[in-house]
Amino acid sequence: MPNPPTKINTNEIAQNFLNKFDTFLFDCDGVIWSGNRLLPNVKEFLEKLRHLGKQFMFITNKSTIPRKQFVEVFKSFDIEISIDQVINSAYSSAMYVRDVLKLQPGKDKVWVFGECGIPEELNLMGFKTLGGVDPRLNEPFDAATSPFLVDGLDEDVRAVVAGFDSKINYHKLAVTLQYLLKDKEIPLVGADADRVFPERGRVLPGAGPMVESLAFQSGKVPTYCGKPTMNMLNVIVSSKHLDKSRCCMVGDIMEVDIAFGKNGNLGGTLLVLSGVETEKSLQEPKEGIPTPDFYAENLGAIYNLLK
Amino acid sequence: MPNPPTKINTNEIAQNFLNKFDTFLFDCDGVIWSGNRLLPNVKEFLEKLRHLGKQFMFITNKSTIPRKQFVEVFKSFDIEISIDQVINSAYSSAMYVRDVLKLQPGKDKVWVFGECGIPEELNLMGFKTLGGVDPRLNEPFDAATSPFLVDGLDEDVRAVVAGFDSKINYHKLAVTLQYLLKDKEIPLVGADADRVFPERGRVLPGAGPMVESLAFQSGKVPTYCGKPTMNMLNVIVSSKHLDKSRCCMVGDIMEVDIAFGKNGNLGGTLLVLSGVETEKSLQEPKEGIPTPDFYAENLGAIYNLLK
Ligand SMILES: [Mg+2]
Ligand SMILES: [Mg+2]
């Protein structure tokens, strides 16, 4: 039996928590912000970490925007970060395509099901992409007239990368299926398998159900690249040469963020209750889902203890 | 080892085949028609069966139109059939809702993800339906303004029925998820699990990937009502009091139509090669997928042998 999670609720526990780690990996939604609202005292907490010489990064399964747009979002909250402090599932998918699948930039192409984050990260690496946010995909589907089918499929497409698409439609599903079935070797890369994400007190369908739908229709098993997979961790570790034992994952979903920290043998994990999980879900863990080492109401609560 | 399939390629084999059965259950797409084209000599073959005093029905996983519209399609091909000769997965889903789930017409409501076949069959039984082809679902989704969410969910909804929807979008997926999560008891009924269907030499995504997507996001296990499930067979057998041993299922997909005949212990199965399967796929059966007792190029070929 693992130890029960330690609640960070005194100055001493908060100090000890900080002392254990050199690097903090933060999930964004439910941790740093909620929807488009920055959570209280997050900016101050990050400044404190900087002041203490701690390293931190943002590790998110949001594939709909590229990393550079995350930098803009932080800037809109008056927080300065650099692009290499952000790793999202669009970037980790692109890294997987280049470094694991060994597709060749400038030569091999990628069909994308998803929003602009995935194609933009692939394009930055030199890959041509098809599909994605091409507006012609928003037209009703007709197999006889779809501009993606009339002249045949693009022979240079060597992989399909799929993520969340709030404009999911049959045209996109149907053409993506044609690429998946084009030949047996074409892999299905899933940005992330998140079932749902929180919004305004509800949960809404995430990327996982979309990728799984493509998997079911094509008979292909997807390889996911977001949290909690090791594909995501490999991107972080290789880019930063981290000492994993001095690294803490901070997130709001146990089966995604805490599982990520545990699967990756990071030094520790912190669950904040400002997102999906509640004190109740923490006390009633589901089978196969790890519990965190530490938990706190939110990052601002830890900051307040440290003052 | 089962016997290898008998090819119907002589007058004698064709005669013996007909003599073995009193009732023929025909799949439609790939058997009776292909797209919107009637296959050759199908009309003549059906007339021959009628002349011989054989009974026949049409058993299809197409849930997008109600049974009465199938009658119209046959009429457009100059073939007269009655509505009780048609059982589609929209009707079998509605029967399941009423007779197995025991929902009460006039009181309990059903949320529908799918085209007009499902709500029309449910409405005929007296169930009120929500969702389906409501045009407001074609508007872009916003959790704060969706007319399906602003006033809360309908408390009388007791089941979700999902089938193929060529206008799949995020609004429909998101609201369907809210009903699936409304309470633990709400079942997810899938019209059919077909992965794909053939069109113009391609395969396109079927109902299965859509239902499986809803299953993945909600964590619910769907109950399917189309071929090859026994829910479909129960509807046929209870409505017709068939002698199953004198009944032959005729279809173009082994894992759907032939599996249906085998699972249901029907007297025989006939595969026609005018749809999804080819001579090659027949000779290389996949594990767990049954092979037919008989096969033929198409229904017209059998008719020609009988002349
Ligand atoms: Mg989160
Ligand atoms: Mg068929």
UniProtKB/TrEMBL annotation, chains A, B:
GO cellular component terms attached to this protein's record: cytoplasm
Protein name as catalogued: 4-nitrophenylphosphatase
Root EC class: hydrolase
Gene3D superfamilies assigned to the protein according to its UniProt record, in alphabetical order: HAD superfamily/HAD-like
Alphabetized SUPFAM superfamilies for the sequence: HAD-like
Coiled-coil annotated residue ranges, if any: none
Gene name as annotated: KAFR0F02330
Binding-site residues, substrate: 227
Obligatory cofactor(s): Mg(2+)
Domain of life from the UniProt record: Eukaryota
Organism: Kazachstania africana (strain ATCC 22294 / BCRC 22015 / CBS 2517 / CECT 1963 / NBRC 1671 / NRRL Y-8276) (Yeast)
InterPro entries linked to this entry: HAD-like_sf, HAD-SF_hydro_IIA, HAD_sf
EC number: 3.1.3.41
